[in-house]
Specification:
- With 163 residues, the protein is mainly alpha-helical.
- Helix content is 58%, strand content 10%.
- The protein has 7 helices and 3 strands.
- The protein has a 3-stranded antiparallel sheet with strand order 1-3-2.
- A hairpin with a 2-residue loop joins strand 2 and strand 3.
- This is MarR family transcriptional regulator.
Length: 163
């Protein structure tokens, strides 16, 4: 009599039907992410066409989180969800491009305030134009009523208000 235990096989996992996986491609988070990517690619292409091809989305993330009157470097890093070290490198690159400058914070000499230079303010105006053109393209694609509803809905969801 053979006393060797029989090998038992684990039952195979049932395959997930493809129809149950569709939510991954159509959930709101993924769609919003894809919309942001398309929006940023459009804005960046417009900036390249305006002669600003040396800028990256990382640079734009810094300038997008920089208040016109200036912002502490630590606050920009927080808003942009990047490390202070990464921000420091990006600010250095933007300084070399003449877009921003750093100066000591008058209330705390250890901290730095990042400000747009006069050239940076001109860049910001071109960026504003690129954003407006991209938003106009979205409005044309969605129709003005749906575009406004989308924008108002996102403003409400993010806890911001139109100013």
């Amino acid at each position: 009599m053979d006393v060797t235990p029989k090998k038992t096989r684990k039952p195979a996992r049932p395959a997930i039907p493809a129809s149950n996986d569709a939510w991954r491609a159509t959930n709101l988070g993924r769609l919003l992410n894809q919309a942001v990517q398309r929006f940023e690619e459009s804005v960046l292409a417009k900036m390249v066409a305006a002669g600003h091809g040396q800028f990256t989305l990382s640079h734009i993330s810094v300038t997008r989180n920089l208040d016109v009157q200036g912002t502490r470097a630590t606050e920009i890093a927080k808003r942009a969800s990047i490390t202070k070290q990464s921000l420091g490198e990006l600010v250095l690159q933007l300084e070399k491009l003449g877009i921003v400058m750093r100066e000591p914070d008058p209330s705390d000499g250890r901290a730095k305030i990042v400000r747009f230079t006069p050239q940076g303010m001109l860049w910001l105006e071109q960026f504003h134009q690129a954003v407006e053109e991209t938003e106009a393209e979205i409005a044309a694609a969605l129709g003005p009523k749906l575009y406004l509803a989308l924008k108002e809905g996102l403003l409400g969801y993010t806890g911001r208000h139109q100013t």
